[in-house]
Design brief:
This is Galactosylceramide sulfotransferase. GO terms for molecular function: galactosylceramide sulfotransferase activity. It is a single-pass type II membrane protein. By secondary structure, the chain is mainly α. It has a single domain, classed as Rossmann fold. The protein is built from 15 helices and four strands. It has a four-stranded parallel beta sheet, sandwiched between helices. Strand 1, helix 2 and strand 2 form a beta-alpha-beta unit. The chain binds 2-acetamido-2-deoxy-beta-D-glucopyranose (3 copies). The site of one 2-acetamido-2-deoxy-beta-D-glucopyranose has 2 residues, from loops.
Length: 414
């Protein structure tokens, strides 16, 4: 029965790969990460106190573009698209990035430490920090000028949960025992039956935003600490963007940073095929929200403050600027993208344009560059379309862990 063999085959492969990845990362974090942490002098309090980086040339009367920025990259929130914007901005102005070494995150899910920055020396100062991390304010802050701008992105926690469940499910071992067609629905029917807060990678399935921001994702939602943490986020971050209002968020970012329209142009990166995105129905949506109550409280707070910011910016002005951004994005689309839209992985011709896929599926879309692009846009088009991993390599980051993992995947054809 060939029709039955294939799913089994696939599941076996997925399991082997899941185990390998789990084992490998466990080894990596348990063995290599502490080594790196130990190398740093815990007494070392030397921190970056250099003045903000100012642009070489500014025209009079205009504000000065800000160059120092910390982007707390949350998971599954369109943050890869924002990363591309920051990579481009940093390259354009020859800014200094704090990159991790070996991998594309700072030993997530362990807390950020300055010693995890590639080639870190005490006193080092950076302009941009933007890779995945579990946030640790004092450690991050010590690496940038005191005037650096802190930003992050949030997303409706029910949808974030759905996205995380499908993207990371394979690397969260306690989900392997879920059976049936709709594992997400099954999990949400009775989360505590399946969820194990001590389980490997458990954070991906419970209040992921709270966790990424450095807080305890298992807090009782009624605890007074929840409100304290939320207010702390508000104090520390100059702009909290919303994935649902990405264009409005970018306009606020441009305004805050005094950047140009070109700096915030983008194509959606790391997006899923529409057919691979199940709709969360009313009841499931409610359950997902309830299950991620801490994130829901966080989101509610920043959804409100976001619209106050838009109000202060001016609604009409916002509408105008969003229209400008969309028009320019469309123009770039017709200049850069072959066929004008994102395509399935199999249809991507250049390997350097292949996005990283979640284990077990190939649902993440990518792009083909047009064959003929005028000189003026050639560079920008390529940069705007380059997926995160390849862009990091282009920026000189040595991703040896990812490389090994890629060989294993290619070997298993998964
Ligand atoms: C600064 O920019 C202006 C135009 O914006 C240009 O005319 C001028 O030469 C630039 N100066 C320097 C030092 O680059
Ligand atoms: C940097 O921040 C300090 C206060 O922390 C402020 O006095 C100073 O004007 C700021 N500098 C710039 C260039 O924004
Ligand atoms: C966010 O705020 C807007 C405007 O107040 C509101 O219409 C929307 O329902 C809110 N979204 C969520 C998920 O709370």
């Amino acid at each position: 029965m060939p029709s039955l063999r294939k799913p089994w085959h696939s599941m076996a492969k997925a399991l082997i790969l899941g185990c390998l990845l789990t084992g490998f990362l466990l080894l990596f974090y348990a063995y290599l990460a502490p080594l790196q942490v130990n190398m740093a002098d815990p007494q070392d309090e030397t921190s970056c106190s250099s003045p903000p980086t100012l642009p070489v040339n500014t025209t009079e009367g205009s504000c000065q573009p800000k160059m120092d920025i910390v982007f707390m990259k949350t998971h599954k929130t369109a943050s890869s698209t924002l990363l591309n914007i920051l990579f481009r901005f940093g390259q354009k102005h020859h800014l200094k990035f704090a990159f991790p070494s070996g991998y594309n995150d700072f030993n997530y899910p362990t807390f950020f430490r300055r010693s995890l920055v590639h080639n870190y020396q005490p006193g080092d100062c950076f302009n941009i920090i933007c890779n995945h991390m579990r946030f640790f304010y004092s450690e991050v802050h010590s690496l940038v000028t005191p005037n650096a701008t802190f930003i992050t992105v949030l997303r409706d926690p029910a949808h974030l949960f759905e996205s995380s469940f499908h993207y990371f499910g394979m690397v969260v071992p306690f989900t392997w025992k879920l059976t049936g067609h709709n594992k997400l629905a099954k999990f949400l029917q009775n989360p505590t039956q399946y969820y194990n807060p001590q389980g490997y990678n458990a954070q991906f399935l419970h209040n992921l935003l709270f966790f990424d921001l450095g807080y305890n994702n298992e807090l009782d939602p009624r605890s007074p600490q929840v409100e304290e943490h939320i207010l702390e986020v508000e104090q520390r971050f100059h702009l909290v963007m919303l994935q649902e209002y990405f264009d409005e968020s970018l306009v606020l970012l441009k305004d805050l940073m005094c950047w140009e329209l070109e700096d915030i142009l983008y194509f959606k990166l790391n997006a899923r095929r529409a057919s691979a995105v199940p709709q969360l129905t009313g009841e499931l949506y409610q359950r997902a929200t309830e299950w991620n109550q801490l994130d829901a409280l966080l989101y509610r707070h920043f959804n409100a403050s976001f619209w106050r910011k838009v109000e202060a910016f001016g609604r009409e002005r916002m509408a105008r600027e969003v229209a400008n951004l969309r028009r320019e994005n469309e123009r770039m689309r017709s200049i850069c993208i072959d066929g004008g839209q994102a395509v399935d992985a199999e249809a991507i011709q250049e390997s350097s344009m292949q996005p990283w896929q979640p284990l077990g599926t190939k649902t993440i879309l990518g792009y083909n560059l047009k064959k003929r692009i005028n000189q003026r846009h050639k560079q920008l088009c390529r940069k705007m379309l380059t997926p995160e991993i390849q862009y990091l390599i282009d920026l000189g980051v040595n991703l040896w862990v990812i490389r090994i993992f890629k060989y294993i995947r290619e070997f298993l054809r998964w």
